[in-house]
Amino acid sequence: MFRKTISLTHDGALKAVAAGAARAVTIGVPQCLVVVDASGETIASLRMDGARFLSLHTARGKARTAASINAATGGMAPEAATLAGIASQGGVTNLPGGLPIRFDGRLAGAIGVGSGTGEQDFDVARAALAAIGADAI
Q1: Contact 123, 25 (CB under 8 A)
Q2: Element (DSSP H or E) covering residue 99
Q3: What are the beta bridge partners of residue 78?
Q4: What is the pTM for the complete model shown?
Q5: pLDDT computed for residue 5 by the predictor
Q6: What is the pLDDT of residue 91?
Q7: Is 123 helix (H, G, I), strand (E, B) or coil?
Q8: CA-to-CA distance for 1 and 53, rounded, in angstroms?
Q9: Element of type H or E holding 135
Q10: How does DSSP assign 13-57, residue by residue?
Q11: Which of 25, 61, 84, 112 is 20 to 30 A from 74, alpha carbon to alpha carbon?
């Protein structure tokens, strides 16, 4: 048996981060952005000037969570979110701002954004997806 997979290149990850950062500048909210591959390993990351330094950690957790569940973050039941956070030693989070990166419905990775409100984080993440032609979420 086999399964077809798709990969996000480092060029694509950098383009996503740049587009997300540009959107963050437009809305006036410095952000931390992390792009991971489908297995949750970091491909690209950025902490913009003025973004909260701890938000880089949460952005990474959001990206890894979105890749792991192949869905947007922020929708877990509170009990499940607490257990997932404990089981992953803080590597998984239920905070909003993580989106899977899919092309034609196939998971290639995820992006996590942090340092704004949940809606601002999602806005920046959506701009990053649009810049690389990923499926809209």
Answers
A1: no
A2: strand 98-103
A3: none
A4: 0.95
A5: 86
A6: 86
A7: helix
A8: 44
A9: none
A10: HHHHHHHHHHHHHHHT---EEEEEETTS-EEEEEE-TTS-THHHH
A11: 25
Q: Please choose, from the candidates 97, 104, 100, the residue with its C-alpha nearest in 3D space to the C-alpha of residue 118.
A: 97
Q: In this structure, what token pair is assigned to residue 52? A: 């909260």
Which residues face 36 on adjacent strands? Answer: 42, 110
Sheet hosting strand 32-37, strand order edge to edge: 42-47, 32-37, 106-114, 98-103
Dihedral sign (CA 3, 137, 66, 134): positive
pLDDT at 2: 85
- pLDDT score, position 85: 86
- Please name which of 73, 128, 135, 68 lies closest in space to residue 99, comparing C-alpha atoms: 73
Residue with token string 């030693």: 89
Mean pLDDT per 10-residue interval, the chain, length 137 residues: 90 98 98 97 98 96 96 92 88 95 97 98 98 96
Q: Are 108 and 79 in contact (CB under 8 A)?
A: no
Closest CA to 132 of 106, 103, 93, 104: 103
99 phi and psi, to 5 degrees? Answer: -130, 140
Q: Can you tell me the distance from the alpha carbon of 66 to that of 74, in angstroms, rounded to the nearest whole number?
A: 9
